[in-house]
Amino acid sequence: MVKGKDENTGKVVADNRKARYNFEIGETFETGIVLTGTEVKSLRGGKASIGESYADAKNGEIWLVNANIPEYLEANRFNHEPKRPRKLLLHKRQVFKLMSAVEREGMTLVPLKVYFNDKGRAKVLLALAKGKKAHDKRETAKTRDWQREKGRLLRDKG
Predict the structure, then answer these.
(1) For residue range 142-153, what is the model confidence (pLDDT) as tens digits?
(2) For the region Disordered, what residue ranges are annotated (predicted)?
């Protein structure tokens, strides 16, 4: 669980920028991810994409679905499938909490970023999120534009 922890996350490989626009982000969890050797090599190259991915609960486990880690070019026949489901590593209590939130409250599990931590381990920042309606998205854009304009006005005055 990432509460009050500064965002010193090491090398960010993939960032889901649309998630904060499309979803109201709730609690976030730092999870490990089960990868093969060629997937790690490809991630170190920084070519992953999690823009259309989500996490799903199956058989008491959390899986990252639709994340695209392209094939590693130097690995010939031992390469991996780019969009295969990947298991996320969480404590049982966290898995139960996430599964119950998804089932009861209609929440969604959204990956925010994939990064390497200080020890060189691949991690996924997973968020418990609720989808925004169209009017909420417009309100968010309006607030963001106003904050930007306010900053410009204060900077020009001072």
Answers:
(1) 998 999 998 998
(2) 132-158
